[in-house]
Structures are given as C-alpha cells and as structure tokens.
Specification:
This protein is mainly alpha-helical and 171 residues long. It is built from eleven helices and no strands. It has helices at 12-25, 36-45, 50-53, 61-64, 67-79, 84-99, 103-122, 126-131, 135-141, 143-148, 150-165. Helix 2 packs across helix 6 and helix 2 crosses helix 7. The longest helix is centred in the middle third of the chain and has 20 residues, at 103-122.
Amino acid sequence: TLLTDKSRRENDAEHSWHIAVMALLFEEYALQKPDIGHAVKMLVCHDLIEIYAGDTFAYDVEANKNKEAREKAAADRLFSQLPEEQGAEIRSLWEEFDAVETTDSKYANCMDRVQPFLHNLLTEGHTWQNGGAKRYQIEQRMGIIKEFMPEVYKWIQKSLDESVAKGWLTE
C-alpha cells in the first residue's frame, strides 16, 4: 500500500506496526470483545511468511490462485529456522490469523483490511487504480468487517460510494 504522503510503498514492518496500533484504537467497534494482546501478536506475525512467499495483492485473481501453497511452503521454511517451541507458537498465530475463526483472528483480520482501505482513501485510490480493483472485490474482502464491526462497515460503504463518485474505483 502506498504511504499516505505518496512517497513510496509501505514495508511489512510499517504495515504491521500501523495495524497493531489500530488494534488498540478500534476495539470499541467489535461486536465481540477481542483479547487485544493476542490479536496484536497475530498482526505482528501474520505477514512474516512474505519474506519467502512475496506479497500478493489482495485483488489479483491470478496471483491468489497459488497463494496458499506459496505461503505454506514459506511458513515451513521460515518457522523451521526457529527453536521448535518458538516456531510452533508463531506458526500457530499465523494459522489462527489465516483461519479467521476465533474472535481474536476476526478482529485482527478486520484491522488488516481497514488499514489499506484507509490508505487508499488517503491516496485517492492509488493502489486500487493501479491494481484494477473493483468495488465488488473490495466489498467481498470487507465482509469480515460487515460481520464483526458493522459500525465501521457503514463508514466503508459510504467511503466506497464516494470513491466511485470520484472515479477512484469502478463498480
């Protein structure tokens, strides 16, 4: 995602830090109370596998076809380099995040979707436009927010309407 000053793309460390801070601030909007400490652990660890798997643009249909296999191979490689107990713990956090089944993982996934959404709004849809994202794709990706943080989703819907009206996004 482009930084809000449009100077460059964020790196994984900046992304993880931003969403960890957001996790501290958005708790009141969650329908179920998350364990913020556990959710932040997931947020800090969830993109580590991109060291080997690379980052896959959320709306790139073709690249997402083999994403799961690439990420599993990357996780096997990365987590095996750690002491067994640490590798198992961090892998468990990554797997919980990806499964999106627990309250904490739902909350963490909401933060992982809100942060780039906000960056797109603040950069006039830069990443959406460059990647050819469509409104329906963004709405699908934001489904977890609709379910878990409906008040935040109202803002997302309004922002999507405005983004389409401004030409940053197409239907």
